Amino acid sequence: MTTNDFIRQCKDSNEFDYYQMQQIHAGFENGLSIEQIKLFAKPEFDNWQMYEIRCGFRDGLTMKQVKLYAKHKFNEDQMQQIRSGFINGLAIEKVKIYAKPEFNGDQMYQIRKGIENNLTMKQVKLYAIPEFDWKQMKKICNFIKENNITDMSMNTIRFLFGLNCI
Length: 166
Fold this sequence. Notes:
Layout: H1 3-12, H2 18-29, H3 34-40, H4 47-58, H5 63-69, H6 76-87, H7 92-95, H8 105-116, H9 121-125, H10 134-147, H11 154-161
């Protein structure tokens, strides 16, 4: 299938709006393959989700990395945080800790920053809990870093931070 055939097929389907079609065109302009574009050229993705997926390829991510977040269950903010983890050199195993739809983009950011700041996975898992909002996560993360905490019970975290969300 040629580029023009693919674009025509997408346009003729009437499943894509103007902004989604712009992302498909931009994919070809960025030199992406049809296989890469097919990953995001789906009507269930809005144009911002399509943008995040396209940018993953533009930024040199592998198909495996992009497929981790090229899912309708993630919004564009969540996709951006997952993509940023890969861009910043995190291994897929570490990104998977926060690449979960139950975390919003702000929560993903706090978890990602903890990983990037060399907290151990055990330390990150102390606050990578969906019930904590991003501000609570940030407080707990800073406490862990400042005090070099390696293990703590949920009851202790709840007590220290006055959290009743577990």
